Amino acid sequence: MTPKQKSSLIEELQKLDYFVGMCGDGANDCGALNKAHAGISLSELEASVASPFTSKIPNIKCVPLLIKEGRNTLITTFSIFKFLTMFQFIGIVCILFLFWKQTLLGNYQYLMHDLVINITVTLTMSLNHPAPKLAPYRPYGQLLTPPLLLSIFMHLTFTVIVQSTAFFLLQQQPWFNETDVFSACLPLNYSSANVTVREHRYAENFFTTTMFYITGFHEIVVEVVFAKGRPFRQPLYTNYLLSIMIAIQIAVYLFVMFADIETLYTIMELVCTPYYWRVYILIMVLVLFIVSYIAEMWFIENRKLWLWIKTMFTYKSKSQYRRLQRKLQKDPEWPPEDRTDYAIQCVSVEDPQNCTASNNEHKPEEAIQQARK
C-alpha cells in the first residue's frame, strides 16, 4: 500500500468509530502513524518522530503490552478519582453531623486525615503494574459512566448510614454527656468532683472523637476497595509500597484509639471513651468494609450483570460500525453466496453515466444502474 492509501484506510476506519492502532517502521508510515489513535513506531528512525509510541521490540509483540499499560493507566485514573471523590464526601458528611451539634474536628485531626491517608494514597495507588494476561474485553472509556457513578453513590449511601449510626448510637450510651466530656473513662466509684478537670476545648467532645475514628477508618476502607487489581491491574498486595502504607495507617489509627495516653489526647483534641465503645467502632468499620467490598466486586465490577442490564433495557451501541453490523445481521442476502460481484469503474466521478463493469464480457446492468444512482 502507498502511504496515502494507508492514511486513507485509517481515516475510513475512524469514520466508522473504530479505535485504530498502527504499527510501522519506515518513513512511508509516518502519515498513518500520525493519524491513528495509537501509532507505534517499530524503529527509532523517521517513524519514531511521527508516532506517539516507540517500541524497542521490532515486531507487533509490543501491541498487547501497550494495550495492557493503557488499560492499567485508565483504571488507575478512575480509582484515584473515586477515592478522592469519596474522601471529600466522607469529610462533608462528617462536618454536617458535627455542625448539627455546633462543633468541628480539630486541626490536628484534619491534618492526620490529609497526611496519613490522602497524600500517601495519591502517591502510591498508581504503582500497580498491569495484569500479566490481557483481558478479553476493555474497561469503560469514559469517566461519567453508570458503573462509576453508581459506585460513588453507593459508597456515599454507606457513608451516611455508618456515620448516622455512630452519631445517634453515641447519644444513647449511659456515659454520654455533652458538657462533662472527661468522665467517661473514670471508674464507677469515682466522680468528676474527685479529680482535677480542665476546661475542654472546642473540638474536645464525644462527637468529634467518634467521628474522627469513623471517618479515618472509612477512608482506609475505600482506599482498599478502590485499589482493585484484576482483570486490568495486578492485585493490591503486589503494590508493596501501598500495602505498607495501608498497614501503617491502620496501626496509627489503632494506636491513637487504644493507647490511652493523656498527652496524645490533648494534642489531638480527643477525649477518652469507654473501651467497649471503641470496639463497637471497629465492628462498624469491619461491617462497612465487608459490605463495601462485596458491593464493589460482585455488583459494580460484575460484567455479566451489566450486560444483562443492557439487554433488559435494549441498549444498543451508537457506534457506526455497530449499526452496520446490526443492519448486516438483518440483511438476508448477507453474506453473499453463489454470486459474482463486479467492480464498477467510472471514467469521471462527475459523469456517473460513463460507468462500465470491470469485466467486459459480463456487464451486470443492475450494478451499473446502481452506480449511476
From TrEMBL:
Primary localization class, coarse: membrane
BP GO terms, sorted: intracellular calcium ion homeostasis
InterPro entries tied to this protein: ATPase_P-typ_TM_dom_sf, HAD-like_sf, HAD_sf, P-type_TPase_V, P_typ_ATPase
A GO term, aspect molecular function: metal ion binding
UniProt membrane topology term: Multi-pass membrane protein
Alphabetic keyword roster: ATP-binding, Magnesium, Membrane, Metal-binding, Nucleotide-binding, Translocase, Transmembrane, Transmembrane helix
Gene Ontology cellular component annotations, sorted alphabetically: late endosome membrane
Source organism superkingdom: Eukaryota
UniProt-annotated location(s): Membrane
N-terminal signal peptide: none
Listed transmembrane segments: 74-98, 148-170, 239-259, 279-300
Keyword tRNA-binding belongs to the record: no
Protein name per UniProt: Cation-transporting ATPase 13A3
